Amino acid sequence: METSAGASVVLDHVTHRHPGGDIPVTALDDVSVTFGHGTFTAVMGPSGSGKTTLLQCAAGLERPATGRVLVAGHDLARLSERRRTLLRRDRIGFVFQSFNLLPSLTAAQNVALPLRLAGRRPDAVLVRQGLAAVGLADRAGHRPSQLSGGQQQRVALARALVTRPAVLFADEPTGALDASTSREILRLMRTLVDRYAQTLVMVTHDPLAAACADRVLFLADGRLSGEITDPTPDTVTARMLHLEAAC
Ligand code: ADP
Ligand code: MG
Question: What region does 144 belong to: left with phi over 0, alpha with psi -120 to 50, or beta?
Fold first, then answer.
């Protein structure tokens, strides 16, 4: 069992199978990993290696077949359905490649949404601070269609962070962005970790993106196949080439 002291998220011997077809697919196979408070981890691996499933299990969106997941010290399997829903809503943030903003709402209304869903009166100051933290103080009244891709991803980040989650999961957050916009988003995510001690776990295919993290985990066929601390684009690329050659 891994220690959970100082950890935001712990996966302890997690195995997960997706039902489907004649043979269930083992998407995660005995994965144990700890994401420490205030750390930035990148997750890499070939397509289908289990990266999204790892995030979904860690975020309580999928229930593992075996093993345990702890978020902010809570064993997800031991919580009632209601407590698990509340933990997901209040302590876990998620951003996606496709931004997933509501098109009819302004940037400010999108950021306020998690507070509304929690039955809280959206605090205008909190929403303004959230938009300011991602550099969009002057875009509060814009709808997603009036914003660039990079600006939409910034709104999605502000929305994911408005509840001050224990951990932010990002599944290929720069996958739909051009190179220079990706760099801006990565700089912003690095700042969230360095300035606010945000715990961040990001799936990416891009060695330049992975090199922004403190640590890179490599997945192959649902198993952890190694990690690099203090990564550089070169060390990440070399490891990816090695993994793909082995497939
Ligand atoms: P990655 O994000 O690394 O591309 P995934 O976690 O999405 O990988 O998928 C891991 C494996 O699980 C793949 O073989 C994929 O086909 C399978 N899989 C993922 N989601 C489902 C699902 N909802 N139903 C059935 N199989 C799935
Ligand atoms: Mg995926």
Answer: alpha
Taking CA atoms, 61 is separated from 75, 201, 210, in Å, by 14, 15, 24
Q: Whose CA is nearest to atom 26 of ligand 1?
A: 18
User: To test ligand 1's pocket by mutation, which of 23, 47, 53, 54 has the most ligand atoms within 8 angstroms of CB?
Assistant: 53
Kindly give the distance from the C-alpha atom of residue 244 to the centroid of ligand 2, in angstroms, as a whole number: 16
Q: Alpha-carbon distance 168 to 165, whole Å? A: 7
Does residue 38 surpass a pLDDT of 60? yes
For the whole model, what pTM was predicted? 0.95
Query: 13 by DSSP, 3-state: which?
Result: strand
- Residue with the smallest CA separation from ligand 1 atom 21 is 18
What confidence tier does 3 reach under pLDDT thresholds 50, 70, 90?
very low
Q: How far apart are CA 144 and CA 141, in angstroms?
A: 10
* Domains in the chain: ranges and CATH: 4-246 (3.40.50.300)
- Which distant-in-sequence residues (6+ apart) come within 8 Å of 126 by Cβ? 115, 162
Burial of 113 (0-12, 13-18, 19+ CB in 10 A): middle
